[in-house]
């Protein structure tokens, strides 16, 4: 079993293995290339498609970005990400259509064991010792707005039409049509017609 297969089967894996380092290196180099280009450069946005798992035809990353694997992330149509998007996609990440990220949003689909000996000194089949990780998927539904400075942890499902308030740390699921915020983030209430801002037009 490869180290990448271990990730998807929910097992501990060696993130420092050459196999995984090579996959990540491609994404890291292309993120550097993306970040170095002017936002009006027509060659900038197509770089995303060189390493992302899947993405719709219409999308925008303001940048800078840092994405760990890229090929483990699947994004729908009409995606927007503001400054400083960080995606630690050791586990798979699924993002629906019409999703918006504010500045400094971090998706963290990776974690380490709590017991130090398991985290710092795992001995692998080939005899080498390394740090170990495990990864749970993140699922973000359609029409979701993630406000600034939000951290979404592995294993979380965010429902369709949800809003996550600024500065939240999301460790549990948020249902469809709810606004959630806080540290830890909690579903606060349903979003209703009373939240309309059409009067501002």
TrEMBL record:
The UniProt record lists the keyword Repeat: yes
Residues of the Maltose/galactoside acetyltransferase domain: 4-57
EC code: 2.3.1.-
Recorded coiled-coil stretches: none
PROSITE patterns membership: HEXAPEP_TRANSFERASES
SUPFAM superfamilies, per database record: Trimeric LpxA-like enzymes
One annotated GO molecular function: galactoside O-acetyltransferase activity
Enzyme class (EC, first level): transferase
Protein keywords: Acyltransferase, Repeat, Transferase
Keyword rRNA processing in record: no
Protein family (similarity comment): Belongs to the transferase hexapeptide repeat family.
Name used for this protein in its record: Acetyltransferase
Originating organism: Acetobacterium paludosum
